[in-house]
Amino acid sequence: xxxxxxxxxxxxxxxxxxxLASHRILIIGxxxxxGFSVAEAALEHGASVVISSFRPSELDxxxxxxxxxxxxxxxxxxxxxxxVSSPYSTSLxxxxxxxxxxxxxxxxxxxxxxxxxxxxxxxxxxDLFRPVPYATRNSVEDALRARFLAPRILAQLLPAFMPASxxxxxxxxxxxxxxxxxxxxxxxxxLSSMLETxxxxxxxxxxxxxxxxxxxxxxxxxxxxxFFDELEVPTExxxxxxxxxxxxxxxxxxxxxxxxxxxFLYFMKDRFCTGSLLRTDGGASLVSRxxxx
Length: 293
Known about the structure:
By secondary structure, this protein is α/β, with parallel strands linked by helices. It has helices at 33-44, 56-69, 89-104, 137-157, 186-205, 222-231, 235-247, 257-269, 289-292; strands spanning 24-28, 48-53, 77-81, 120-123, 169-175, 210-216, 277-280. A 7-stranded parallel β-sheet has the order 3-2-1-4-5-6-7, with helices on both faces. Strand 4, helix 4 (137-157) and strand 5 form a beta-alpha-beta unit. Helix 3 crosses helix 4 and helix 4 (137-157) packs parallel to helix 5 (186-205). The chain is globular. It starts with 23 loop residues before the first strand and ends with a helix. 38% of the residues are buried. The mean pLDDT is 85.
């Protein structure tokens, strides 16, 4: 049985900045964009971090970048590959169980005395979501598996690896399209709605552990560049598309991974918040599509 990490003792003036100190955080999809920024922020907050990816090369690059940026925290950083693309749920369960076992094992320089539970899990899908005009049956099945089935199976496994405490949290990631459905792309809206209801259901089932969901708006991400590369979209067209998204927000700009990473930190820190959705979209849900397109 795992127990929550004891809260560190600090002078009163540091009690907010040190809420995650000594906590163990697993970030699935922590090698690029938002996931990478969450890993950076967790290290800056004094946490021990495990990042995972199904791409070994990206995992190695992310670990190297983080160790260069945070050399003094390198001993608190580990990484492991985890492939959630398996079409067989039994294989997926084995993959996720191995991931959790790795995250619980003490790393180099950490306290070796006994096993430690995972205090926080952040799930950010790395799959390349294709809009309906470019979707195939396989891409739809991949998206459903990576964005819904995998986090659902992971939730079933968590009680054996995460302390039963309000200090523990599981944060999912979805999209703000559930509030502003895109034209000609109902599947993305449906998938986001499923994650919204899954969040609330898991908050009840996993209590007192906390479960929340960050709903992202238009954020600059490597995944979008990868999608553009596949379609061979010219550079000037990419800029036009980005500008369209930016003008469809009250902020007048796209979000950055460093900015939206704060939403994940909040869910990890606030022990009174569970079953909640936090939308970070630059106010896009308040802008009428007809006024900007």
